[in-house]
Amino acid sequence: MAGTPFRIAFLILFAVELYVMKSTRTFRPLLSQLEDRSVPALTATISNNVLCVTGTPVGSVTITAAAAASPYTAWTVTDSGDGSFTVPAGNKRDLKVVLGSGTDTVVYNQAGVTSPGSVTISTGNGGDTITVNGGGGAIQGGLCILGGNGTDTVTIGNLTVGKNTNPKNLCVNLGGSIDDTLTLNNVTVIGSLYTYYVNDITTSGGSISRSAVFYGGAGGNEISLSTPVGTGSVGDVIFLSYPSVTQTKNTLQVNSPVARDVRFTSAVANEFGDEVTINAAVGRDVAISGGNKADIVNINANVGRNLYLYMTKGGDDQITVAAAATITRTTFIYLGTDGGDVTFLGDTGSGVGTQAFYLSTYGSTNLTFAASTTINGRGTARFYGGSNNVFISGSTRNDVLTLFAGGATVVNNIDVVPGPPVANLVLIGTWV
Question: N or C of the chain: less Cβ packing under 10 Å?
Fold first, then answer.
């Protein structure tokens, strides 16, 4: 057929051109609506009988315990800024609250209920306020409060932590701010109290059956302990300063009895010195390691065994043992090149032939024994430098008191009232 090849070629070319036109048509994307993925401010889940509340609250958070069949607790949680938030149904043995960064306010009400499980509240970074109202109730599985960067304030009252058959701990860690505070009112801890980086701590009433351990913060620390610590021969008060430099003074005041030891360790460098005051009986030893500035130590109550004062890093230290205090065995005092003032008005020693008092100093030192002083055993004071003064006013001594002047001592003065040096007093070196 004439023209057939041409017709076939035309049809093929038309088909190709039509295909290209269709394939190069402009692409117009379509938008489809995505599913709602918004997350509520707080979420609550139950896993392995642990109620977990996480997120960043809109307002303040209030948690209230209610009685439930043992070993569970029926907690309710509300967010004042989100009325839709609820806690799911289910058995809850333990509570764990983890909040995001920000300024949080958390109020926990134990409401007189006994909870067999544990409670942990973590508020993250930010200046947070946490209040725990026990209402006479108990958290038998332990209580842990965690803060972060920012100035935190924690108040706990009228609560028992732990139980007699299963001691648990109260732990408070408030991060690295320099002004965090913790207040305990009528809190009974059947176990130990541990605090980390809390600057100001005040306790009153209640009791701590084991130990109270304070790890200091960078901003200096002020601790007033008016809660008995320990039972029987178990129970220490331990203060460990921030490890490097503290920006303000460290102060520890013990106003209630301690079953065993009080141990205080200052920072490597403390620009404002430390102050330790013992106003209540200590069952065994008091051991204080001072800083590099002028420290103050006041012993106003009985010490059941030994008093150890290591004040050798520096500073013109001030040490006073009150007339009402008895050091049952030995008083050991070590001063550095800045010396200090030692006023010993109480009793020390366990009898003739034992070491009752020992002082070693490398700086100018004033040593005073008053009429109320009793040295029940040997006394030794070694002065290795500086200008030293010893004043003895009618103290009672039943063994030898030896005063040794050596090294590069400039002047050594001794004043005994009444009259000149008497029996049981031995002077070595130059004294006037």
Answer: N
